[in-house]
Amino acid sequence: MSDDLTDLRTMLANYVDIPVETFDMSEDLDLTYDMDSTELTEFAKNLTCKYGLAIQKSDRADWRTGNDIVAFIRRFTSNTTCATGDQQ
After folding, report:
1. Residue 68, SS3?
2. pLDDT, averaged in runs of 10, over the chain (88 residues)
3. What span, in angstroms and rounded, lies between the C-alpha atoms of 57 and 79?
4. What is the pLDDT of residue 86?
5. Distance between CA atoms of residues 36 and 30, nearest Å
6. Which residues are bridge partners to 46 per DSSP?
7. Which of 7, 30, 77, 87 lies 20 to 30 angstroms, CA to CA, from 15?
8. How far apart are CA 75 and CA 78, in angstroms?
9. Pairwise CA distance, residues 83 & 88, whole Å
10. What region does 52 belong to: left with phi over 0, alpha with psi -120 to 50, or beta?
């Protein structure tokens, strides 16, 4: 999972077209990287493809930083793992 989260940082840096080394996951995506709600919607489509997530507009409303997106993915994958475990 940590590799996936590193990939997320790379995805975000590439999306805003800056070197991954300079991308700070704790910075405000809109204020620092000019990533507004329209761009977050587009980025969410990338996450849907990569992680198979169903991402609603209400989910994206809480995404202010890259760390917020990481937390969302962790919650989603944790819930999926639990749900899968419950089926056995």
Report:
1. helix
2. 72 96 96 95 92 88 94 80 45
3. 19
4. 47
5. 5
6. none
7. 77
8. 5
9. 9
10. left
Q: What gap in Å lies between CA 38 and CA 15, rounded to an integer? A: 13
Q: How many CB atoms neighbour CB 71 within 10 A?
A: 13
Token pair of 55, please?
A: 């991402």
Check residue 4 and give its pLDDT. Answer: 60
Question: Which residue do the tokens 């997106």 mark?
Answer: 69
Residue 65 three-state SS: strand
Structure tokens at 3: 């590799």
Using alpha carbons, list the distances in angstroms from residue 33 to 36, 58, 63: 9, 21, 13
Predicted local distance difference test score (pLDDT) of residue 51: 83
* The one-letter amino acid at 15: Y
CA-nearest of 26, 86, 82, 75 to 53 is: 75
